[in-house]
């Protein structure tokens, strides 16, 4: 698949556009919040700011200039749902609640997918300026430094990331799963940004992560980065019968991937 496109060239575009978008996200943040330009989507806790919309518009405009004629799927403006061909997938601000509060842990995530599979991607942190990137078959990098997952080989000594849904009912169920898992791991981290959780596994900052209910724009770039860094990765699988449900993503260092999957199955995570 990767041989059908120039993945490295697509990665360069992703990095260039995501960097520009990150600059915009950072500069408009104070105005968008103090002006009250904040709305909600699925629930009252699921927020969207003027910054989200402005950043996605910028990404679409720049891609139209640099890659004319290619479709774009974005969190705020939607897009073509077909998986065939080359399509860009953008989360203009992943971690909008953090962005709203001024918590400096959010990202711009941009990936190129071919027939629904990520072949290039970039995740840029507006506050720190860090750039995570990957091209299929060419490795994953943080600011030019090659990434590699941790050497973890015991789940009870592993640091695991996760996230929670906006729905109260689903969050309650996720908390029950977490309670069953907590005694089997070193500790849990919940930062509120799925793309950066995936990148953190790729860097060895986390040994693994799992989450249910993510959308394609949440994981399209980060999943490629963590896979290219050597993690074992399970993406959401429509119609899955493996016991983890069809909406769960799981990734981990190879030494604990099987243990983490088994622990999630015992915790009944697939029912969340």
Short synopsis of the structure:
Mg(2+) 1 binds at residues 75, 91, 94, 218. This protein is of the alpha+beta class and 272 residues long. The chain has helices at residues 7-34, 50-66, 96-101, 168-182, 194-203, 216-228, 254-266, and strands at 38-40, 47-49, 71-74, 86-94, 107-114, 117-124, 131-135, 140-142, 145-146, 159-162, 187-189, 208-212, 232-234, 248-252.
Which H/E pattern describes the elements? HEEHEEHEEEEEEHEHEHEEH
Domain count: the total is 2
**Between the first and last Cα atoms, what is the distance in angstroms?**
33 Å
The CATH topology of the largest domain is what? Answer: Fructose-1,6-Bisphosphatase, Chain A, domain 1
What is the number of strand segments? 14
SS field, number of helical segments: 7
- Quick one: CATH superfamily of the largest domain? Fructose-1,6-Bisphosphatase, subunit A, domain 1
Structural class: alpha+beta
Helix content: 25-40%
Binding site for Mg(2+) 2: 93
Keywords: Hydrolase, Magnesium, Metal-binding
GO biological process, one term: inositol metabolic process
Family: Belongs to the inositol monophosphatase superfamily.
Explained architecture:
- Keywords: Hydrolase, Magnesium, Metal-binding.
- Mg(2+) 1 binds at residues 75, 91, 94, 218.
- The chain is of the alpha+beta class.
- The chain has two domains: 2-146, Fructose-1,6-Bisphosphatase, Chain A, domain 1 (2-Layer Sandwich); 155-271, D-Maltodextrin-Binding Protein, domain 2.
- It is 38% helix and 24% strand.
- The chain has seven helices and 14 strands.
- The strands form three sheets. It has a seven-stranded mixed β-sheet with strand order 3-4-5-6-7-8-9. The protein has a five-stranded mixed β-sheet with strand order 11-10-12-14-13, with helices on both faces. A two-stranded antiparallel ribbon has the order 1-2.
- Helix 4 (168-182) links the parallel strand 10 and strand 11 (187-189).
- Helix 1 runs antiparallel to helix 2 and helix 5 (194-203) packs parallel to helix 6 (216-228).
- The longest helix is centred in the first third of the chain and has 28 residues, at 7-34.
- The chain is globular.
- The protein starts with 6 loop residues before the first helix and ends in a 6-residue tail after the last helix.
- Mean pLDDT is 91; it is low at 40-47.
